[in-house]
Structure formats: structure tokens, C-alpha cells
Design a protein that fits this description.
- The complex is a heterotrimer of chains A (about 350), B (about 400) and C (about 350).
- Chain B has about 400 residues and is an all-alpha fold.
- Chain B is built from 18 helices and two strands.
- Chain B has a two-stranded antiparallel sheet.
- Chain B is elongated and about 95 Å long.
- By secondary structure, chain C is of the alpha+beta class.
- Chain C folds into two domains: about 220 residues, P-loop containing nucleotide triphosphate hydrolases (Rossmann fold); about 120 residues, OB fold (Dihydrolipoamide Acetyltransferase, E2P), CATH 2.40.50.
- In chain C, about 25% of the residues lie in helices and about 35% in strands.
- Chain C contains eight helices and 20 strands.
- Chain C has a six-stranded mixed beta sheet, sandwiched between helices. A five-stranded antiparallel beta sheet of chain C has the order 13-12-11-14-20, with no helix packed on it. A five-stranded antiparallel beta sheet of chain C has the order 15-19-16-17-18, with no helix packed on it.
- The chains are: A alpha/beta (about 350), B mainly alpha (about 400), C alpha+beta (about 350).
- Chains in contact: A-B, B-C.
- The complex binds adenosine-5'-triphosphate and magnesium ion.
- Adenosine-5'-triphosphate binds next to helix 1 of chain C.
Chain lengths: ~350, ~400, ~350
């Protein structure tokens, strides 16, 4: 090998590394990122395929499990390989403040009044509303729990319980389990005594408390009888009932309602197409198709009217279901997520 | 002669180039960035230079002076880079919860020209010293607060290093647990892997292929499949408990999953190949006639093993243990899936700071501490197991 | 009755349907140097492994000093074994290797040092006792293996082609060394080789193996001069073989009619009846060549080639309907190709075996 060859080789290697390090989605191929599972399967049928067919744009898919740092590092590295991403409400607020999302062109989407108030923002548009609440298998517990207070009643309902690992939802549930009414939860949680109270409540369950991280886990635990009751996403519960003939019950009072939104990552090479895709996915006739696949609420009020009643009654946005529900405290969590997670981890570690 | 020497040098140089380049780009560079991240603290200073000047003369107890408030408003009005502002907010919020909402409120307020010069009308939290202390503490370009926080320490009001309050952070405990679990897993891998490697080395043909495949299987299956398998095996109504109950060995089901036992079983399962393969590869190089030779010289098979097989295969055991231990230290998904609440490992905490809250400084500091402890353990281990057995010749 | 040290009685080793050692009966005399000689795969190593206890006999019994040892594990048999590839422990020094059997037997520290020193002196390696085996030459490693097998003074030493990997000169030196040790220590040695000249120079007796059976067991001289079978005759050294049948007897000589009708006079042997088919063997160095015909047992032959071999010529001949080989002194005259000569076989040098 001569020096010249070596240098050429070096050039090739570095070029390869650079190319590898920064593979943007090819301009023209739109990458949409959801949360996987049944929801994304539904989104594919209701949104991605028809949109690709209509516009003649190739849609690539990816899925993720959230995490603001993931988006931030993608945008900071430049040339993000994701274009449209489904984000949770805190990620929407944080990213909008940090400027890691493109501003939406609402003119293309439609009048803001058509959408639920909490789904309208500069950087994103709500696409689905999910409930996280108490679930159990009515075949194993015919006279099941009615509230988070019952969740803590080990005498009446012996057996293990599962909660999502992390402070979000868990602390809210703990306070409600301790008798705090839904509309007072964040008020209490904002005080140090309130936080102590929530952790003490968790302590009460002792070894009967186990944790889940992926949305599929609580359904598995309930199905296998590993736990008597669990926090779960309402869509997963409806899904397992519909597909596997289970008789799981989702307790609507005391569920925490949160909205996921579509955003466009700053620096997206396919900004135009992304904007079009988001507009398409927000049209009433398209949104109305979603509840058929998964029981999450939709954000376009016109679409909601078109959903058949037997599906609509399972949505978190149903009027009856909203009674006693707790909208997620987005502001509370963007302020306190880090410190409370640190405390939560410390608490877990020393149990 | 000189030309030939030079040629040989260039050739050697060119041959190691790709490797050196790879290490530089994917190891040294990130490491340097990590070190910098863990001690640098410029996010706030960058955005709030005027405030910094004013805060310097403040007594940290009384309400903020008018000049401080005016300087903050001026700084926020001058800031243009949204991302840099975001970094500043994140930094302040991680020191004092509540800064996020406070700042977003304040930033939209200062966009209006009528705001100022006082901040109390915007939000009365601005009258509370803790928020200003958070700013004052974030103005040194270099900081040790992340490194300290990584081991549950902080500086108190007088600047002395003290323990963090009880219950607010448990990194030390989690570090200890991480190394303890990694050690346990390494131990079990040796106990299971060594005899297994002996078995493979002693077998031939198809048997050997099957035995090898059996140990490699976990490497070939996806995490989800593996997790599902563990779940089926280990849960209370699972296969193992079912078997033990039906044979009457136990009266009530054992807790095999969602606790330390589950973590150790699952990690041992996944990491076993990393133990078996190095031992196996050393064992097959040991001449088959050494054991017969030892017994013919009067050694009971057990003593022959201890005096001949064991020392000769130690090289494989040593590297297997290193591989398993180092890999185990970095695990977090498996413990999260099959472990209980008390089985979180330090990588999970690092992942939380980097992917969830984008607190890169804290993530880097934890990474630095992990690296440092691992290096110390490696040196101790290298001393104990003798330089020859690690990497040296036999 | 001779003093049998080891007796193998009906020993058989099978791998599946393959009989690697077949119903072997063999008595090894105390203090003798017995070579097991045979082609590759004839079962020599297998026999040694069974003696050492590394493998179990499928059938049959092995006795040492009259006691059955089939069930005694290898480490209690007290036999020194020298492996073809030495089997030195690579992580131990020369001295540690040699000390190993003593340590296993619980000898005292100073005792061990003394004995190791003596053993290394014996093989002239005292100066290398701190080296690792990888720092020794092949011959030196071989001598360490020897010292290690002898240091604990076993009654029997088993050697499996111990000199196979050495060059000719070193091999010959080691052959002498081993013989000398054998004589000095009064050991019983079972020595496996497939080198016939090694077996001939070293052994008190040789057992020639073929396909797991003994073809012949006897002194080197008898094996060479009076092979019992065609296999032995052909395997040991070079020989001329002529087919024929017994035509008659005259005192202690017999007449053999060769296949082309020529008559040949050979030494008589018991059991050779008139009409019996036989093979006549004569070693090349016993074939006399001359211009004029000598007395009896002379046949006309033609030289087809003469090959110079350093210390002798190898002469290839054609006559009596077959090929012969003769050896001629290097100083003898050379005959050109095609020269017509007479080959003479002295009746005493001809040996008759069953075909
Ligand atoms: N483990 C085994 N399984 C099957 N056959 C075997 C086994 N070990 C040896 N054999 C067969 O037994 C026969 C005798 O083997 P052995 O090693 O005793 O021969 P040998 O006389 O020592 O030959 P060499 O001179 O080549 O060393 C060979 O045909 C060999 O293939
Ligand atoms: Mg052999």
C-alpha cells in the first residue's frame, strides 16, 4: 500500500463515517414517528397510507418511547432523520420553549375553534387523548374497585398492584388514593408536605406494589393474574377486551387525561410535506377513523361527532367518562419532573 | 535501508489508522465531551451577563434589588437564541423546581414593552430568594456540582461539601448495587459457565455444535422474546414454580421475577456466552494429553484439574469475568423488565438524565463516576489476577 | 516360569463394531525392554492407554505382579508414561514439571529438591531447571518428559513413540540414553514405535502388531532372520519372496519347486510336508552375485538397475520369472544394465514361511 492509497483510504473511511453519522431521511421520504403498538397500526391505516396515496409521497415510519433528550439531541445534531413526531404534552411545551420544533401553519390545518382547547398550540396539534387509570379483570374480581381509595384497600382486594415506574401519574394516584379529590391533586402535590404524603401512601402498599414501564406490561400482568389491579392506558384495556375477549374494566373516575400532539422537528428536510401530513391527519373525516382501531379520544370536535356511539362510549373524551377525570398537570410536571424523579429513584432505591 | 524501514513504518501506521481513527472518533472524542459536560456550567452565564454583575453584590437573603430585576429583564430581552435560553431554563429548573413555568411566564411578559422594571407584578415568586440563589449559584463557568451530585453530595450555603438531605438522591446506593449485581452475575456466570465450557470442549461434532448453539441462543434472540420467555418461566404461575409445586418441592410459589433473583437469573442468562466463549476458546487450545499425563504421574483427577486444567484455563476465566462484569455494569433494560423496584441500576439513572430531561451534565457526571470506579476496580483486579493472565502470554 | 511383570489376558478393545485390539494375550517379563511395533492404526497406542488406565478394556484382564488392575484408576497404577508429544505442563518450569509426581505423592520439600536434581542430572538438564518447556528444544523437552516419568521410580515405564518428533541424530542419541537408563535402573519398559530399526536396536523383545493382533513376538534377531509370517517378513526390513511348493526332503534340507519350475534348496523346517505351498524369503544382503554359476541354488538373472546408496549398491534383478533385490558392497564392481549374472541363495539363508 502506498501513501497515496492510504490517504485515499482515509478519505473514504471518514466520508463513510460522516455519511453514517448523519443519514437524513432522503428528502422526499417523510418519516413519521409514533409510539408503536395498536395505536400506530391504526394510524398507519387511518393516516399514513391514505396520505401517501393522496400526495404521492413515500411515508417511512419509526416508533419511540418518549424522552425529551432524544428529540433535543436529534435537533441539536442538525438534519434530524425524523420529520413528524407524536409527543406528550410536556415534550410539546418544553420543545416549543426551546425552539426545537417548527411553528405550525394553522392556515393549512383549519380553524383553531374546531379543536379541543388543550390540543391547540404554536408548535403542535393534539392528535389523541388518552386516559391512564385503574384497570382490573372483572372475571377475577367480579365486585371490583371503584376508585383509587379501593386500590389501596388491601383487605378488601388482596393481591399485588402495578403502577407505572416514575413519579408522573403515580403520585397523583397516591394522593387520590389518600382521599384527595381530583381537582385538588396538583394543589396538594405542589407543596413539600403533599409530596411526602404521596410517597408515604405508596409506602403503604409495601411488597404488594410492582412497577411497569411499557404499556403492554400491565395488560400482561392482569391477564396472567400476577396482579389484582394496575394502572393502565385505557386504549390498551379496550383493545385487549375487543381482540382477546377479556372482561377488563377501566375505572374512569380518577383517570389522568393527557393529550399527545404532532410536531415537526426543527430543521426537517421535509417541512412542506410534514405540514401537509399534519393537516391531513387533523381532518375530521380522517380522525374519525381512529377510534375503530384504538379507544383514544380525538381532538377535532367535528370528527368526534362522527364516531359511532358504541365506540365513543369508550373514549376518554366521552362526557360521562370525563366526570371525575383529572387533566394531566403539564405545568406541574415540566417544573418538577426532574426533582421528583430523582426523589422517586432515591425512594425506590432505599425501599 | 532507510527507505525500507520508513516503508515498514508507514505500512504499520496505515494499518493501525482505521482503528486509531475509530477509537478517536467514537471513544476519545465522546469521552472528552463527557468530561467537559460534567464540569462546565455556562448555560446561565451566557444568557444573563448583566444579572451576573448585579447578583455578585447581593447578600443571598434579602429580597432582590431593583437593579437585579432590571438586569434580568434586560438580559432576557437581549436573548435571541431560543435553544440557549432553553438550556438556561433547564439548568435553573434542575437546581430549583418551578423555574420552567416561572421563566416561560417571564419571557412572554418581557416581550411586552410595558413590563418592568420590577418583576413582582409578573410573578411573585421573583421576590423569593431561592430563585435568585439558584441563579447566583449557576454563574461560575466551571462547577463540581454535577460530580458531587453524582455521589449524593452538594455544597451548602458556606461552600462546604455536605451530604444531600436524606431521601433526595440515592446515587451512591445505586452505584453500590450496580457493582454488587454485576459481581453476583459474574460469579454465577463463572460457576455455570466454567463447567459448561469444559463440557463443550470435551464434546465433539454435533454435540459440540448443539451445546455451543444453546449458549449462544440468548445473543440471537431479541430482548422482547427473551423477556417474554423469562416471564413465562419465572412468574408465580410460571413453568418453574408450576413444576416445583407439582412435584411438592415447595408449598407456595417462589418469587423469581420482579426482584433481585429475577435480575440475576436473567442477566446471567444473557451474559453467559461472554463467559463461556473465552473459557472455551482457551480450553480447546490445551493439549488433551495433559490431564492423562497428570493422572499417570499420580494426581487424583481432582488434583490434576486444580494443578493443570485450572491454571491453564485461568486466562479465559479472567477475560470472561472482565467481559461479563463490564457488560453487566452497563445493563439497565433487563433489570427494568424483570427486576423489582429496588433493582434499578445506575445506567437507568444515566438514561433518565440524558433521554428524558436532557440534563447532559448530570448524565456525564454519573458516567464519569462510573468510569472512574470501573477503572479502579479493573486495576485492582489486574493486580490480583496477575498481569500475565490479563492479555499477557501464558 | 519366567517372572512376568505384566500379563494381558484376552484383552480386547472395541469401538462400535471395530475391534481395535483383538483378544490380546501378552506377557511382559520383569525388567525387559519390549517394543510394540506395527503400522499406523494397528492398536499400539490403545494397548498402552489400557495399560496406563486411560482407557478401559472392553474385554479381558490385565495383571500387574499377578494382581488384576482393570479397576485401579490411572493415578494409582504407578506407571511412568512418556507421551509422543511430551505432555509437559506449559505453566510449570522444568523443575516443577519433574517435581509434580513427587508432590502428588506427598514427598517432603527437601526430598523433592534432591530427587529432582538427581533426575535432571541423569538427563543432563540441571542447568535448565528454571526454564519453561516452551524455552526448550524438542530433545530437551523429551528428556524432561523422561525425567518426569522416571523420578518417582515407577516399576513400569510406558513410552508412546517418544522419539517420533526428533531428528535422526538426536533420536539415535536418545535411543542409547534410554537403553542405558533401562539397563541401569532395571526398569520394565513398554515402548511403542512404528520405526522398525528403532525397535531392532533397542528391544529385548519385539511384538509385531497387525490389525490389533500380534503377528509375532520374539527377539529382534529372530524377528529379522526368521519372520513367522509374510506380514512380518515384509514389514521388517527388505526381503525377497518366492512362491513355491515343497518337492521333497533330504536330511535337514528341503527342496522347493518355484513357480517357474526351478528347484531350490532350503533349510528344512518341521511340518513341511511334500506338496505344501510355501514362501521362501531371503534378505537382499544374503543374495550372492557372480559371473559364473556357483554350485547349487544358482539362478541366471539379468541386472535391470543398479542404484548407488552411499555405503552400498542396491541391485535390481530379473530372473526365475520374478524380480529380486540384492545388496552389494560399495567396493564391488558395478555391472551395467542388462548384464547376465548368476544369483546364489545359500540354503541356510533361505527361510520358509506359510504363504
Ligand atoms: N476414540 C476412538 N473412536 C474410534 N476409533 C478409535 C478411537 N481411538 C482410536 N481409534 C481407532 O483405533 C485404531 C487403533 O488406534 P491406535 O491409536 O491404537 O493406533 P496406533 O497403532 O497407535 O497408530 P499410530 O502408529 O498411528 O499411532 C485406529 O484405527 C483408530 O482409528
Ligand atoms: Mg499411536
Amino acid at each position: 500500500m502506498t501513501i497515496k492509497n492510504g490517504i485515499r483510504g482515509f478519505g473514504l473511511v471518514s466520508a463513510a463515517i460522516l455519511a453514517f453519522a448523519a443519514t437524513p431521511g432522503l428528502a422526499g421520504d417523510l418519516t413519521i414517528v409514533g409510539w408503536g403498538g395498536a395505536t400506530q397500526d391504526g394510524q398507519r391505516e387511518a393516516y399514513f397510507k391514505p396520505f401517501a396515496a393522496k400526495e404521492g409521497i413515500k411515508v417511512l415510519e419509526d416508533s419511540w418511547d418518549g424522552g425529551y433528550g432524544v428529540l433535543q439531541s436529534k435537533v441539536n445534531a442538525g438534519n434530524p432523520n425524523w420529520d413528524v413526531v407524536q409527543v406528550e404534552s410536556e415534550e410539546l411545551v418544553l420543545g416549543c420553549a426551546d425552539g426545537i420544533y417548527e411553528k405550525l401553519d394553522w392556515a393549512q390545518i383549519g380553524p383553531k375553534e374546531d379543536f379541543l382547547e388543550e390540543s391547540v398550540s404554536d408548535c403542535g396539534i393534539g392528535t389523541l387523548t388518552s386516559g391512564t387509570g385503574l384497570a382490573y379483570d372483572s372475571e377475577k374480581l367480579p365486585d371490583g374497585p371503584k376508585s383509587w381509595v379501593d386500590f389501596w384497600d388491601l383487605k378488601k382486594y388482596p393481591g399485588k398492584r402495578a403502577l407505572r415506574k416514575g413519579p408522573k401519574y403515580t403520585l397523583e394516584f397516591a394522593l387520590m388514593g389518600d382521599g384527595v379529590p381530583a381537582d385538588k391533586v396538583y394543589e396538594v402535590l405542589a407543596t413539600p408536605e403533599g409530596v411526602d404524603r404521596a410517597f408515604k401512601k405508596l409506602e403503604e402498599l409495601g411488597p404488594n406494589l410492582i412497577w411497569w414501564e411499557a404499556g403492554a406490561q400491565p395488560i400482561q400482568y392482569l391477564a396472567s393474574g400476577e396482579v389484582a389491579m394496575s394502572a393502565a392506558y385505557n386504549g390498551r384495556v379496550s383493545n385487549v377486551n375487543a381482540k382477546e375477549g377479556k372482561k377488563f374494566v377501566f375505572v374512569w373516575p380518577g383517570n389522568v387525561v393527557a393529550t399527545d400532539s404532532w410536531v415537526i422537528l426543527k430543521g426537517s428536510a421535509n417541512k412542506e410535506a410534514a405540514q401537509k401530513a399534519i393537516a391531513f391527519m387533523s381532518q375530521p373525516e380522517n380522525q374519525a377513523k381512529m377510534p375503530k382501531y384504538v379507544a383514544y379520544g380525538i381532538t377535532n370536535k367535528k370528527a368526534a361527532a362522527e364516531v359511532p356511539p358504541e365506540l365513543e362510549k369508550n373514549l376518554p373524551t366521552n362526557v360521562d367518562n370525563l366526570k371525575g377525570a383529572l387533566p394531566l398537570g403539564v405545568d406541574f410536571w415540566i417544573d418538577n419532573n426532574e426533582s421528583l424523579t430523582q426523589r422517586f429513584n432515591a425512594w425506590l432505591a432505599t425501599r | 535501508m532507510m527507505a525500507r524501514l520508513w516503508n515498514r513504518r508507514t505500512r504499520a501506521f496505515l494499518l493501525v489508522m482505521p482503528m486509531a481513527l475509530f477509537i478517536a472518533v467514537f471513544f476519545v472524542w465522546p469521552l472528552v465531551i463527557m468530561v467537559k459536560q460534567s464540569v462546565s456550567d455556562t448555560a446561565v452565564l451566557q444568557i444573563l451577563p448583566r444579572t451576573a454583575d448585579e447578583v455578585a453584590g447581593w447578600d443571598r437573603a434579602s429580597p432582590p434589588s431593583e437593579a437585579m430585576q432590571a438586569a434580568l429583564i434586560a438580559d432576557l430581552r437581549a436573548a435571541t437564541d431560543e435553544k440557549a435560553v432553553g438550556d438556561m431554563v433547564r439548568r435553573l429548573n434542575s437546581a430549583q423546581s418551578g423555574f420552567r413555568t416561572l421563566m416561560s411566564k417571564t419571557i412572554s411578559a418581557v416581550a411586552k414593552p410595558e413590563t418592568g422594571p420590577l418583576l413582582a407584578p409578573v410573578d411573585k415568586r421573583w421576590m423569593q430568594p431561592p430563585y435568585w440563589i439558584a441563579i447566583a449559584d449557576a454563574l461560575e463557568p466551571r462547577t463540581d456540582r454535577y460530580l458531587l451530585a453524582a455521589v449524593d453530595l452538594e455544597r451548602d450555603a458556606t461552600g462546604d461539601i455536605t451530604q444531600m438531605p436524606e431521601g433526595s438522591s440515592a446515587n451512591r446506593l445505586i452505584f453500590g448495587r450496580t457493582f454488587w449485581i454485576a459481581g453476583l452475575v459474574t460469579l454465577f456466570c463463572v460457576l455455570i459457565g466454567y463447567p459448561y465450557a469444559l463440557l463443550i470442549a470435551a464434546s465433539t461434532g454435533t454435540t459440540r455444535a448443539i451445546l455451543l448453539a444453546a449458549v449462544l441462543l440468548p445473543l440471537w434472540t431479541s430482548l422482547l422474546v427473551r423477556t417474554a420467555a423469562w416471564f413465562i418461566l419465572l412468574q408465580e404461575q410460571g413453568l418453574i414454580n408450576g413444576f416445583l409445586l407439582s412435584t411438592g418441592v415447595i408449598a407456595s410459589p417462589l418469587a423469581l421475577i420482579f426482584n433481585r433473583t429475577g435480575v440475576v437469573i436473567a442477566m446471567t442468562h444473557v451474559l453467559l456466552p461472554l463467559m463461556v466463549l473465552p473459557i472455551y476458546s482457551v480450553l480447546v487450545t490445551i493439549p488433551t494429553n495433559l490431564m492423562p499425563a497428570a493422572t499417570s504421574l499420580g494426581a487424583h483427577p481432582l488434583r490434576a484439574f486444580v494443578h493443570v486444567m485450572l491454571p491453564l484455563s485461568l486466562r479465559g476465566v479472567v477475560s470472561g469475568m472482565l467481559l461479563v462484569f463490564m457488560t453487566a455494569v452497563g445493563y439497565y433494560i433487563t433489570p427494568a423488565l424483570v427486576g423489582g423496584a429496588g433493582d434499578q441500576m445506575i445506567s437507568a439513572i444515566i438514561a433518565f438524565y440524558s433521554t428524558q430531561t436532557a440534563n447532559w451534565s448530570m448524565a456525564s457526571a454519573l458516567g464519569m463516576v462510573l468510569l472512574a470506579i470501573t477503572l479502579v476496580l479493573y486495576v485492582v483486579y489486574a493486580q490480583l489476577s496477575g498481569r500475565n493472565s490479563i492479555g499477557g502470554r501464558m | 516360569m519366567a517372572d512376568f511383570h505384566i500379563r494381558l489376558d484376552g484383552v480386547t478393545k472395541t469401538y462400535g463394531s471395530l475391534r481395535v485390539v483383538d483378544n490380546l494375550r501378552l506377557d511382559i517379563i520383569r525388567g525387559e525392554f519390549l517394543s510394540l511395533l506395527g503400522p499406523s492404526g494397528s492398536g499400539k497406542t490403545t494397548i498402552l492407554m489400557m495399560l496406563a488406565g486411560f482407557q478401559d478394556a472392553s474385554e479381558g484382564t490385565i495383571y500387574v505382579d499377578g494382581n488384576m488392575i482393570n479397576d485401579i484408576p490411572s493415578h494409582k497404577r504407578n506407571m511412568g508414561v512418556v507421551f509422543q508429544s511430551y505432555a509437559l505442563f506449559p505453566h510449570m518450569s522444568v523443575a516443577q514439571n519433574v517435581a509434580f509426581p513427587l508432590k502428588m505423592r506427598g514427598f517432603g520439600r527437601s526430598d523433592i529438591r534432591e530427587r529432582v536434581e538427581r533426575a535432571l542430572d541423569m538427563v543432563q538438564l540441571s542447568t535448565m531447571k528454571d526454564r519453561k518447556p516452551s524455552q526448550l528444544s524438542g530433545g530437551q523437552q523429551q528428556r524432561v518428559a523422561l525425567a518426569r516419568a522416571l523420578v518417582f521410580e515407577p516399576g513400569v515405564v510406558l513410552m508412546d513413540e517418544p522419539l517420533g518428533a526428533l531428528d535422526k541424530q538426536l533420536r539415535e542419541q536418545m535411543q542409547l540414553d534410554i537403553r542405558e537408563l533401562h539397563a541401569r535402573l532395571g526398569l520394565t519398559i513398554v515402548f511403542v514405535t512404528h520405526d522398525q530399526s528403532e525397535a531392532l536396536t533397542m528391544s529385548d523383545r519385539i511384538a509385531v502388531f497387525n490389525k490389533g493382533r500380534i503377528e509375532q513376538i520374539d527377539t529382534p534377531r529372530m524377528i529379522y532372520d526368521h519372520p513367522a509370517t509374510r506380514f512380518v517378513a515384509e514389514f521388517i526390513g527388505e526381503t525377497n519372496l518366492m512362491e513355491g511348493e515343497i518337492a521333497g526332503r533330504e536330511g535337514d534340507e528341503a527342496m522347493v519347486r518355484l513357480s517357474d519350475g526351478c528347484m531350490m534348496r532350503v533349510r528344512a523346517r518341521d511340518g513341511l510336508e511334500r506338496g505344501a505351498k510355501v514362501l521362501v524369503t531371503i534378505r537382499p544382503e544374503k543374495v550372492e552375485l557372480s559371473d559364473p554359476p556357483a554350485a547349487a541354488n544358482s539362478f541366471p538373472v539379468t541386472v535391470s538397475d543398479t542404484i548407488y546408496q552411499g555405503d552400498h549398491f542396491r541391485v535390481q534383478l530379473q530372473g526365475a520369472g520374478q524380480r529380486f533385490i540384492a545388496r552389494r558392497d560399495r567396493r564391488a564392481a558395478e555391472w551395467p544394465q542388462g548384464a547376465r549374472l548368476h544369483a546364489t541363495f545359500a540354503a541356510d539363508d533361505c527361510w520358509v514361511i506359510a504363504p
